[in-house]
Each structure stands twice: as C-alpha cells, then as structure tokens.
C-alpha cells in the first residue's frame, strides 16, 4: 500500500501540468491510502501490546555482587518465597533458588528476557524452586511472599508502594536497588562499589525495608 501511495504521488506530479483535476484526485487517493497504512500499522502495534502491561523500567541488570548482597541483606532462608519484580535475565531468581534454597518467582513482560531466563532455569535444573511468570508485576499476589526484590524507577516504586502496604504480611522484607521507596524508613541502607567492573563502575545502594506488624504500620 505504501508503494501504491508513493506511485500515485509520482504520477500526480507528472500529470499535474496536463490535467489539474486528475492530479488532485490522485493526490487525495494517495493520501487516503497512506492514512490507511498508518492506521493499520497502529492497530497491529496496539494488538501486540495488551493493555495494562506497561513497561515501567528498562532492562538494566543488577551486578552479581550487588544481587548477592541484596539477598544476604534480606536474610532470605531456604523454603521462603521470593519475588523479583521485573526479573530481567533472571539473575536474582536464579541466585535466590540456587544459592539460598528459596522458592523464587520472577515477574517479567519482555518476551525475550522471559524466554532466555526460562532457558537458564531449565539448564540449571531449577524447575522445582524457580519460575518466571509472564505477568505485569503490579498484578502479582503478594499474600504469601517473604522477600521482594526490586530494581525499578521511583515512579514505579510509588505505584507499587500502596499495593505492598496492603498485601504483604508483617515481617516481609523489601529490598530495593538504588532507589528508595518514598515515605518508608529503611531498616538499613548499604552501599557497595562496583569499581572493578569497567562498564558499571559506580556506587550501588541497597535499601532494606521490613513490613511492620499491622498495628505499627507506617
Ligand atoms: C532494571 S531491570 C531489573 C532486572 C532484574 N530485576 C535485576 O535486578 O537484574 C527492570 C526489569 O523490569 C521489567 N519490567 C518493566 N515493567 C514491568 C512490568 N510492568 N511488569 C513486569 N516486568 C516489568 C523490564 O522488562 C526489566 O527487565
């Protein structure tokens, strides 16, 4: 359709001197066809992005040593349930299951990351302990979760905050990489440098929160 539109524009240029009305008609037809093309493409793109699955953070992986520290600071124990919200390449899910014996679930909406992290879980035979769900992180059921890890932008954390406040059980830990949850007092703030890494060579901050009992909730 795009080619047809361009051709019609070209023809209209050639005939314009000889026949003004015909050239105008051809221009209109070309324009309508181009508009149809744009509308069609828009519809296809919208169909590929189901509503409610907005990406709230680009993929940027937590350096391994920071990821380990996050889980250590969470005091995560074997058998506990861990969620990584926006699990990226699955590194926190893999670590929680493989190194700490936790039952770990990653939530991710990027299909390439979902496929590659699932392949990794399969390769490491972590199927019993770990899974990646293709699911918007805001729709997760948090009622049984012990540890939540996040590496999300402030706006996403602000949206997540009331959900966690109402659905996490007392004693659950939330560990946020680099961005604090506005309005919560961290139990601990830990910084560690990653200066040995030639690319990601800056200081990383880990914010450790623990949900209080209902009567002392912030
Ligand atoms: C900064 S990366 C963090 C990856 C991993 N958690 C880590 O720390 O290495 C954020 C991830 O969140 C994912 N994401 C963004 N919006 C999401 C949403 N609404 N639901 C689930 N995942 C989402 C992105 O695709 C990306 O992989």
What this model shows, in words?
The protein has 218 residues and is of the alpha/beta class. It has two domains: 2-48; 64-216, Rossmann fold. 41% of the residues lie in helices and 18% in strands. It has six helices and seven strands; from the N terminus they run H-H-H-E-H-E-H-E-E-H-E-E-E. The protein has helices at 2-15, 20-48, 64-73, 91-100, 111-123, 154-167, and strands at residues 81-85, 103-108, 130-134, 147-150, 173-177, 188-193, 203-210. The protein has a seven-stranded mixed sheet with strand order 3-2-1-4-5-7-6, covered by helices on one side. Helix 1 (2-15) runs antiparallel to helix 2 and helix 3 (64-73) crosses helix 4 (91-100). The termini are far apart. The site of S-adenosylmethionine has 23 residues, from helix 4 and strand 2.
